[in-house]
Amino acid sequence: MKLGARMxxxxxxxxxxxxxxxxxxxxxxxxxxxxxxFSIQPSIYRSYQSIIEQLQGNTIGxxxxxxxxFTLGNDPFVVGFAIILVIGFTTTLKxxxxxxxxxxxxxxxxxxxxxxxxxxxASSRFSSMILGILAAFIVNLVFLPPRxxxxxxxxxxLATTDILQWLRVTTRQLSDEPALKYEIVRIQDEMRWxxxxxxxxxxxxxYLKGRxxxxxxxxxxxxxxxxxxxxxxxxxxxxxxxxxxxEQIPEDFQNALVDELDKLIxxxxxxxxxxxxxxxxxxxxxxxxxxxxxxxxxxxxxMHVYEKTNNPDKLVFLPLASQLMExxxxxxxxxRLLKSYQSHHQSDYIQTTEK
Length: 355
Fold this sequence. Notes:
Layout: H1 5-23, H2 30-39, H3 44-72, H4 76-92, H5 97-110, H6 118-142, H7 148-171, H8 177-203, H9 209-241, H10 251-276, H11 285-288, H12 295-307, H13 318-344
């Protein structure tokens, strides 16, 4: 079992909320722990958004609960009616599901039967929930703040490495079909998580003007890295679909296809290594070699070969030609963006590893 930062932060925030709740003598400190579970977020920015929204949601729930108790009592049907109103108000305000759920919990907690003075009982329970929200926000702010830049690059690097390895094997018709089919599904899931991590990274706020400009360039560079990796994945899927039809291509063209694709893969790997800082920035020849793959000429040859044949299946290679052209175009674009970033931000490295 792997313990993630969010799991540890949830446990710590629950412990803090329970401790402070007992220390202050709240009637139900357990509500503070429940509020923590609904309030922990994966990023500081989302935590800030969440605390404002959840304070609003809990206030709406508390007000409706108090009005309902004083006017209609706390009969079970009245509680249900109050919950319907709370859900209606919060969804109309487009609050997220956790906020709506926590507002419902607030209604149920405040409308519970009690022998104590209702206002004291309600204010104590409402304070417990506010304590849980604040505890989650503070823990999220100061304890193990997420480093999405490093996490994002690792996901991109891992996915790129897997895709390029499979491309090398597949183009030589050495891949095991069941294994490749499984890997394609797995890599698709990894790319979805990469997009999610990119979203979290883009939400991180920088408050210094210089760093904000650098962060904007990093976002563009990371977006292009992801796009290029996806295009290489599209090429891999195209080869997978054509696995048994590649043999229809003349042997000399098969060799040319493997050679050109190897150059393309090497170019992609060099760009990733350059981003890791493993290629000297003054060693420009390594980056010039990215121009060696001549994919447009390769695609032209492919079209020329099949214009001379009457094979009815020749059109199935058009998607492969399209994917190769698009992959080459995105790789050239990535090269330009990387060189531009490295020339303008020589001292601001992308965090590719944990410090």
